[in-house]
């Protein structure tokens, strides 16, 4: 029996990726799509300015777009994916939760809320147990799970691998693709022959979300990881794929070879969208590169490379596809975990 | 009386910048240009594939290109600028020094040699006194002065300003323009919609040259600065202008405001190519940007911005024009200092 | 005595170019700047998101932005430049004309109106005489003059030169820079690693405006040139500078050499913003190129190249800076002509 | 029984595409790869700097690269694909033909030779009969077939469709991707924020090859099509996918709708690499776009759009993937035709 799913905010850039990834999904069946009032009532083909470079699945193209409200979602839908703008999500998600829906959300609101699991299935699946606390405190029948920001999720799997040596401090610089800002987020006049050394709110997300993801669930809440994280975020003229330079200090010395071994040992989990190996580590220092490597593992594998010693620790580079592993794919994988763990 | 100067390796990308910058220079008069054997004997117009977006000065266009050998340089030339490939420079520069020429060189060979001054006139002009030791040891009548690598020179003025608080450790990530690799150094297939997380030798240059530049001349040699430096270097699809993210720890706490004040207090020196203010500090966190800010101070001013506290220190961004402040302009400014200090 | 001028719509991309070009203009003095209601009352520095890569002139930065209404413009302003969006211009320009202002407008509305001169001073200055008819018909004290679209103005000077051989038919393909669509007109997701074979309304503008520009004023109106023009317009990932491929048939055979001679013979006019030579013709078939050649003649010279015979005529390429010669500089030059001819 | 095939010049950009396309080919089995002397004896993984964004098939990676000489090719290889540089191909291809090999070549030499078929299987399969004449005249046991240049092949299927109305004259402007020049053919300094209005030899190829492709085989040779073709070729900052603007005049009037219908009626042929529909015609004038549409039909379908009337005929745009339909895929498809028609 397939799980019937819906997408809240289905016409935007991440919404389109959801549709692309759900096409031929082994266990999920797309049953409903919602968007803003202006789009409601149109067919999806009319409502969405389709930008993904595969074609709209025919059946989705003919779906009627619903309003983003619980009343517009069929009762037999079991799981909702949200790619709403965070301002809208903040207003609208609670109504779905009260109505009993399980929501796997990519929106940035509430990621650091104490009773909201922020999860990457390969890293901290146990954080889903926060849902019990969430239901107790909020009186919801549904459940809200978030995935981290695209820049955070790119580095956290590598940090998780290094944490066996006791992570103490992390400095990270990002080279982020324009798709991370949505279809119209970065104008061509801003970015051609240029780079922008600031992305509003992004640095703080990396600094806080990473400590929650690597934190411990102690039965009542998440005890944040104690490492210091400092991030500098840059926008560059790349379409997809965030590349990051990490400088890490660990309590116990880790050689580049040991660090690479720890990364390579990070395995995927038994869910349809998880790659077999979580992190591919390159020996060639010129890799990973966004255009060459963002597609590894259908966009769900993390790439790393350039592992070298510094006086105080290690430096290395990592990369992930920001709208697949860093957005729609991340929510989808959380949805698969919610089903596997019996929350749906 | 103008100083008569020559350019060794005048047809390449940096050589063309030398010609552009020497046009209308107040005290230097271009008397000779040299290039490889294949170009010798041609007019400059024929020999150079001119790529700079101003036109070749008419008088230079008609100059006959000489061989890169002391015998081909007129006797009344007082000062030579070198933009030879480092492999060629290693072979050829000594011959010019033995022949008594003063050479201000942008080539990367010998930058870390113990008796070769590596200078930025606004930062460590006193290092020129190494020339006495150089002459003693090598038996040269001439003098060899180097400027640092373009990625190093972008951050060192900001580090020099912060050193009043006692620099202890620096992590730096670079977003470097394609022009840094020379005209044919980066193919379009490599870099469009992409970024490359490695530039051969660049990280080591930043890690060592910066410690020499901020070191002390103790009468016999340069005592390297004790700070730790770790660099990650990236190539991005930008034409000119290197942008760098710096994380710095200092012995004494420095607030972002104090750091900005120290940077703003860095003044230029009384030489034609030095800007009035060495570092422009932006309040707007979205600046500096390569395309918008590389031209400040005719390409000779450093820009900084994004100053923020981290748990252990500061983070900020800096930017310079890599083929002006970071190459031809750097050598030219060293040449001006050599004249002002009486070495020419 | 300087002519006091104002800019309607001064905060946009073309408005910023006006300010840049008016800085140090020999005869014009910027007296007032207007923008939308949202900006009125702010200083120009606050109201404009400054994007041009020179700095805002200090005196302009501190000007108070006025509303775009005749009542907000000082009485001693003699000449207004308009870079309003065409929808706004359609509503607002008549009020200024009724109030007696002379307006040199870059906005696309009314360019083909029978009593509105569409002029390029080097090509059809006599069309200004339409102003008499305009005043008669509309009862205006002021005068409205338009410059053509940026894609039209790039090719028309070359067509004017070829018309001595009797132009019969023109096919033109354009490679247009993103700045032609305004600062936010083309998103980075649309254009990186891409090209778009359509620009709304552009093809028709080229097909009609060029025939008006090369038409004859017969005392009562403009007799459109009889040539056929077919245009295909493309957007490419270039910042500034429109490049165009032209295929032209003439009644009388013209060899490439004769065509080049005719183009080279096109001279500028005796106005401050007109270049000495109107068209620079390259022998090198790889030129003109947008980045290399858009700055020729301070952005006011047309470049041409690649002149070759075809079975039926000629093919060649031409290029102009779309936001200088193709927009702000075009209006400015028309303003200079209006002053020289005594209309101001 | 699979057909055993080899690739001459397997390490270059087109060679890599051959390997990618041959992976999982239904009837071809890659048996041998050759390259220059410098690469011979190495494994393919060592010899090729792999640039395609899928991974090297494991079995190919471990193949030993042979010299490009008949003696180095196993006897049981039936069909060779050539992506040699044309200068090398001119020297080397005859040796393979004398040795009896059938060669489907992408190299540009000999495309216009009178006894060499230049074929697109969906357009002019009958031209293969020239092989009889070729064998007679040259005394070869093998056979040499060429596919056209990437810029030619992009437009010819659309011209073939229009030829039912009697093609008389064609003007075409191209916006060509950098991959058409090979991996190192266009430097990033040349093309970022730029366009180049000339590609050496390309215009002539379009003007001659298209007339041969649409010509008639009269039993002794190809009678070139009588239409006039004039081409202007531009390089733009796009990775893959050539976009072309065509202006066409036909003897009989064709409306845009009739032209679209003729294009849509062009079907593929019954060969593994031929798409079901040869030309996809868009109604949306903003399409086709290189990044969005180059992948249609696995890179083998032609896209068209923007069909409009002009005074003398039609204008429209077309697009194809230049290294698949325009190079490796074109040779592969010719190979499939050679097998189907019994030449192998």
TrEMBL record, chains A, B, C, D:
GO molecular function: aspartate-semialdehyde dehydrogenase activity; NAD binding; NADP binding; protein dimerization activity
UniProt keyword list: NADP, Oxidoreductase
Superkingdom, natural source: Archaea
Gene Ontology annotations of biological process type: methionine biosynthetic process; threonine biosynthetic process
Active site: 150, 242
Domain Semialdehyde dehydrogenase NAD-binding: 4-131
SUPFAM superfamilies: Glyceraldehyde-3-phosphate dehydrogenase-like, C-terminal domain (SSF55347), NAD(P)-binding Rossmann-fold domains (SSF51735)
Ranges annotated as spanning the membrane: none
Pfam families with a match to the protein in the record: Semialdhyde_dh, Semialdhyde_dhC
Protein family: Belongs to the aspartate-semialdehyde dehydrogenase family.
NCBIfam families reported for this sequence: asd_EA, PRK08664.1
Protein name: Aspartate-semialdehyde dehydrogenase
Native organism: Halobellus salinus
């Amino acid at each position: 029996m397939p799980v019937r799913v819906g997408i809240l905010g289905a016409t935007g850039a991440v919404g389109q990726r959801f549709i692309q990834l759900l096409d031929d999904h082994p266990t999920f069946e797309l049953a409903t799509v919602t968007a803003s009032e202006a789009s409601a009532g149109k067919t999806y083909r009319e409502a969405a300015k389709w930008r993904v470079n595969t074609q709209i699945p025919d059946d989705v193209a003919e779906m009627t777009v619903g309003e983003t409200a619980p009343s517009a979602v069929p009762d037999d839908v079991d799981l909702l994916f949200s790619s709403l703008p965070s301002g809208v999500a903040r207003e609208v998600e609670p109504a779905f939760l009260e109505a009993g829906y399980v929501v796997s959300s990519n929106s940035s609101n509430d990621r650091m809320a104490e009773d909201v699991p922020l999860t990457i299935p390969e890293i901290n699946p146990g954080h889903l147990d926060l849902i019990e606390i969430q239901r107790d405190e909020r009186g919801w029948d549904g459940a809200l799970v978030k995935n981290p920001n695209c820049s955070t999720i790119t580095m956290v799997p590598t940090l998780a691998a290094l944490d066996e040596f006791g992570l103490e401090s992390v400095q990270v610089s990002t080279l982020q693709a324009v798709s991370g800002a949505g279809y119209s987020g970065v104008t061509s006049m801003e970015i051609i022959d240029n780079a922008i050394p600031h992305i509003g709110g992004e640095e703080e997300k990396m600094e806080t979300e990473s400590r929650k993801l690597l934190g411990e669930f102690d039965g009542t809440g998440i005890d944040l990881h104690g490492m210091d994280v400092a991030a500098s975020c840059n926008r560059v003229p790349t379409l997809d794929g965030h590349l990051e330079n990490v400088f890490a200090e660990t309590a116990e010395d880790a050689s580049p070879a040991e660090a690479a071994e720890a990364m390579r040992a990070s395995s995927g989990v038994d869910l349809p969208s998880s790659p077999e190996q979580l992190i591919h580590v390159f020996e060639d220092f010129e890799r990973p590169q966004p255009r060459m490597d963002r597609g590894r593992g259908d966009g769900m594998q993390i790439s790393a490379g350039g592992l070298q010693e510094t006086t105080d620790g290690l430096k290395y580079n990592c990369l992930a596809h920001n709208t697949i592993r860093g957005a729609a794919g991340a929510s989808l994988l959380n949805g698969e975990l919610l089903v596997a763990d019996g929350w749906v």
